[in-house]
Amino acid sequence: MGCRTFLKILDTHTPEQIFSESTQALSALKLKDKIIQGIQNPNWTAVESDLNWLSQGNNHLITLNDPFYPRQLKETADPPPLLFVRGHKQLLSSPQIAIVGSRNPSIEGKKTAFDFAHSLALQGFTITSGLALGIDACSHQGALKATGNTIAVAGTGLDRVYPAIHKELATEIVTHGVMISEFLPGTTAQAGNFPRRNRIISGLCLGLLVVEAAKKSGSLISARLALEQNREVFAIPGSIHNPLARGCNGLIREGAKLVETTDDILQELGQYNQQHSVTTVTNNQSELDLAQQNLLNLIMFSPTSVDDLVEESGYSAEVISSMLLILELQGYIGAAAGGGYLRTK
């Protein structure tokens, strides 16, 4: 079942209701026979396998209604109904910049990705990428070197690492950041998975930076998805003679912001600049109780109304007001014009 069908059904049914519907009722939802058979006769062996994965420490499953589901992603046209997560799930709501590019970059491209990720992580941004060879890996490594936060969006199930050469990097990301996937455990690397993964990378971020990309490149798919999702797109220019620069130069020609230093990005995303300080989410929230952490994860780095918080959290307005006061006194949030609140760290 595709995301759009899944989301359409959730408009009228809870998952529990779907499993109690008759064949006729399911057919009325225009579901294919194979999907109806799967609903009525679940593969319990596969279910048990997934539950075993979920029972392992630091593994999580986040639904659309979970307070940890990132609002940036939820507001896209086809957010994944489920996110499998390994690591610090609180990071999913942190301000993110995605960095993508060639799997076979130049030495200069690798250094550029590492340096930009390192610098932006020091500014307080979480660096999001796809764990691929080349620019992706250098971006994750740059953020980790800065003791910053990084998110890897996988194109496989999280019980495996692709490419396998990045097993050590994946372990480090899970320890200090987070890995996520919309794909069930056991899902292998398949060509069609990676464009789907790219929409999650762009959907999570405030802006997407392309470091090096050929004229026909998966990174350009990510950039166009980011534009469709109203994200800022940045590109580093290169020589007209360098085939790895043609994709970036083409993006700039089409309206992407030309980037030479991190200041170019920070100026564009000025209100999200975290004033040269980086602290991991786990350290940031260590003094908060679970309810306060959950509420903080719903407050964006742009104005968020109390009404939205009531709807998203399920807490009463009185309880939220009390927690907002605590979060404001501790410096996690600030009052915004019009009565809302925004995160400050």
Shape descriptor = globular
Low-pLDDT stretches: 273-286
Number of helices: 17
Number of strands: 11
Mean pLDDT over the residues: 88
Largest sheet: 9 strands, mixed
Which value, in Å, is the CA radius of gyration?
21 Å
Label the structural class.
alpha/beta
| Physical arrangement of strands within the biggest beta sheet | 1-2-6-5-4-3-7-8-9
**What is the N-to-C succession of helices and strands?**
HHHHHEHEEHEHEHEHEHEHEHHHHHEE
| Strand residues, percent | 5-15%
Q: First CA to last CA: what distance?
A: 38 Å
Assembly type: single chain
Helix content: 40-55%
Structure in words:
The chain has 345 residues and is α/β, with parallel strands linked by helices. The chain is built from 17 helices and 11 strands. The chain has helices at residues 3-10, 15-20, 23-28, 33-40, 44-54, 71-74, 107-122, 135-145, 167-176, 193-204, 218-228, 246-253, 262-268, 281-284, 290-298, 306-313, 317-329; strands at residues 59-63, 82-87, 96-100, 126-129, 150-153, 178-181, 207-210, 232-235, 257-258, 333-335, 341-343. The strands form 2 sheets. A 9-stranded mixed β-sheet has the order 1-2-6-5-4-3-7-8-9, with helices on both faces. It has a two-stranded antiparallel ribbon with strand order 10-11. Helix 8 packs across helix 9 (167-176). The longest helix has 16 residues, at 107-122.
